[in-house]
Each structure stands twice: as structure tokens, then as C-alpha cells.
UniProtKB/TrEMBL annotation:
Domain Hemerythrin-like: 12-130
Recorded superkingdom: Bacteria
Entry's family note: Belongs to the hemerythrin family.
Sample GO molecular function, one term: metal ion binding
Phylogenetic classification of the source organism: Bacteria, Bacillati, Bacillota, Tissierellia, Tissierellales
One Pfam family per UniProt: Hemerythrin
Keywords on record: Iron, Metal-binding
Protein name: Bacteriohemerythrin
InterPro entries: Haemerythrin_Fe_BS, Hemerythrin, Hemerythrin-like, Hemerythrin-like_sf, Hemerythrin_metal-bd
Amino acid sequence: MFKWKDNFSVNIESIDEQHKELFKIGNSLYEIVSIKDGVDRYDEIVEVLHSLMDYAVYHFSFEEKVMVDNGYPKFEQHKRQHDSFITKVRSIDEEEIDEMQKKIGMDLIIFIANWIENHILKTDMEYKEFLNDKGVY
Ligand SMILES: [Fe+2]
Ligand SMILES: [Fe+2]
């Protein structure tokens, strides 16, 4: 589902690794939601949701520190996108997942896909040259 390509690289090794990890979490969610055996997957979906949350918090604070340490001029607007991602993931109601597992799982997959497209491939990409020029690889 979520496949890493070389042009997704921001040319900073640690951040690329973290982005790949987020792809992995997206893929495990996709796998769970795609199984059509009618078995209740509530616990698994909630577990993936929590790992997405935890990993996003970790990755965002890492990225934000690199930006602040290097005086990245577009830090504020970048951070706002991170914050809205967290708010959105946090707003997913676990009781609702219980009733509408497939629907919420699929919505979340679409949300992650949009995030990759609009944040990693656009907003994150904007710091690539700036940070590389500062010697961050
Ligand atoms: Fe990122
Ligand atoms: Fe970012």
C-alpha cells in the first residue's frame, strides 16, 4: 500500500528512517483492515492507532528540534501541520472504532496517504535544501 521511493528522501538519514517507519505503521493498518474474515479487529486497530500516535509525536519533535537548532525560517507553519496531525489522530474515538472498524480504518488509511502526499512530499521536502546546506544529512 505505502511504498517508499527514493524521491521521498529528504537526504537526512535519520528522518528518512523515521518516515519509513511511519509507512510501515500505515501498511500494518492497511493489512488489518483488508482482512475479510469478519473477525473483530478492534484491539489490533487501536494498537496501530496508538503506535501511529506515539511514533508521530516522536518523529515530529525530532524534526522540530532539527529545524529550531538550524534556524529554519518556516518552522512555525511547519509545526502547525504537525500539531493538526496529532489533534486529528487524537480525536479518533475508540468507542466509535468498536462499531465501525472498517470505515474508520479506511478513513485513517486515506488520512495517512494524504499526509504522505501533502506533508512529507511537500512541507518536509521544503527543508531539504535548507538543512542540507547547513550540513544536516
Ligand atoms: Fe516528517
Ligand atoms: Fe514535518
